[in-house]
Write a structure and sequence with these properties.
Elements: E1 11-14, H1 24-51, H2 58-75, H3 78-87, E2 91-93, H4 94-127, H5 132-135, H6 138-164, E3 173-174, H7 181-187, H8 193-226, H9 231-264, H10 268-292, H11 295-304
Parallel strand pairs: 1-3
Antiparallel strand pairs: 1-2
Helix pairs in contact: 1-2, 1-3, 1-10, 1-11, 2-4, 2-10, 4-6, 4-8, 4-9, 6-8, 8-9, 9-10
Length: about 300
Amino acid sequence: MDRGNITGTSEFLLLGVSEAPELQPLIFGTFLSMYLITVLGNLLIILAVISDSHLHTPMYFFLSNLSFVDICFTSTTVPKMLLNIQTQSKVITYNGCITQMYFFMLFAALDIFLLAVMAYDRFVAICHPLHYMTIMNHRRCRLLVLICWILGFLHSLLESLMVLRLSFPMDLEIPHFFCELNLMIQLSCSDTFLSNLVMYLSAVLLTGSSFTGILYSYSKIVSSIFRISSAQGKYKAFSTCASHLSVVFLFFCTALGVYLSSAVIQNSESTAIASVMYTVVTPMLNPFIYSLRNKDIMGALKRYL
């Protein structure tokens, strides 16, 4: 199929989480509620960090960046889904699909990189406390976030270029609520060997290296905590890492579960529902995980409100 036939004029159909008409009001209300909670919760964390000078530390600097990325991450998929349900239209243009895919991969990669940077920050704070402020100075923190953005842009650009070279049938039906990279490659009518190769190599190099770095950091952190003599000191050190570790496993395990299950189970509706976990639920839970276990954040929010 000639690629010229699909650029600019073609339209795809997003089938959503479920095609059952009687479920659409429930799906709309559920996703709208989760989206509003996600935006409000993460926005409150950002405002708390900005407004309270006691939170102007590397850990909360990275947390505010993660909250901003989570808002953007969810905003790439949910508003379009809600609009389609409200207008009773499933249409998304080819250009819109590619744009959505680009920004989704950008913010997903940023989530992964920022979680790795936050693990490194906790590693330095617990394993090298005397040199913490020297190592994690303001310049290095900004540099680490800048590197995360650059890597995210390059990764999403590469993946998008791999999809742009593919051809798709006219009026393609996408059994998902957004244009997901792996599914789009599967639905292509072109040779997808190169696209699959790039996708899996980037997943291994970027996601695998980040996850390995997180596991290495926390292995060192755990060994350092066990060497602390007082029980109170152990609890304080562990409490600073428990929230971050919860978010790491929630995000990585759900995302990995979706991709592994989609490779084995050819039930697209089940895969779409499972994708809700890491695309919508995890960003929504992050503010609760970080704020409810963190007295500094709770105190700053109370003073702000």
